Amino acid sequence: MAKREHIALFGGTFDPVHIGHLRSAIEVREALAADELCLLPNHQPPLRGAPGADSRQRLAMVEAAVAPEPGLNVDARELRRDEPSYTVDTLRELRGELGAGPALTVVIGSDAFNNLHHWQQWRELFSLAHLLVLKRPGHPLSADDAVRDEVAPRRLAGPSQFAMAASGGFYVMELIQLPISATDIRRRVAEGKSIRYLVPEAVAECIDQQDLYR
Ligand SMILES: Nc1ncnc2c1ncn2[C@@H]1O[C@H](COP(=O)(O)OP(=O)(O)OP(=O)(O)O)[C@@H](O)[C@H]1O
Ligand SMILES: O=C(O)c1ccc[n+]([C@@H]2O[C@H](COP(=O)([O-])O)[C@@H](O)[C@H]2O)c1
Hints:
Elements: E1 6-12, H1 19-32, E2 36-41, H2 55-66, E3 72-74, H3 87-98, E4 103-109, H4 110-113, H5 125-128, E5 130-134, H6 145-151, E6 170-173, H7 182-190, H8 201-209
Helix pairs in contact: 2-8
The chain binds adenosine-5'-triphosphate (ATP) and nicotinate mononucleotide.
């Protein structure tokens, strides 16, 4: 059985998944030397309206996107819960399966981090996992004071240190800056413009075949 001592979870609405997500996922996996990095499509995004594509369609696009990339997997567990996809619930479920030993790292972009104080039981996340924040162009770090106070003593010197404990660490990672968003991709599709090289070809095909975002 494959080693599962360090798992990174990169959650999102992925409406649709794009190369900003995929390039980040590869760089994070390399930086963490994680055994696997799972893209985790949500079912009901807790802090935004209903996505343009339904959960099955978003899952299918994520699966098509990671298929050629060894080390990137998909975790579809949030689609099995017919309720808002709170990350704390997902982490509790995973801890129930993995036990307390393996390192778990939750990966989020700086825009998501700036809203962390609105997440369900957000302080609890640190007893279940590490938190890795990706700098994202156009989204400077501006976390709430309560979040800043929480993460300050948790800050690690580098992503490789996450493997030394199961949870509780914090790090902000610099990575390639790709100012690509799903909102911009949906707008381009609606305007009949090309999205070539913004999403993998297999994702563009799914969008085309299912007539999404028009
Ligand atoms: N270009 C990018 N670079 C780094 N991180 C990103 C990028 N795009 C999205 N992310 C991060 O990936 C996670 C999932 O993002 P999400 O699925 O909401 O995509 P999005 O492009 O932000 O979508 P939307 O434009 O619909 O808000 C979030 O933590 C987000 O911050
Ligand atoms: O747990 C929460 O309360 C919570 C609130 C907002 C977002 N999240 C998760 O954060 C990830 C990024 O969300 P989003 O909306 O930026 O695509 C995704 O996995 C969401 O399910 C989680």
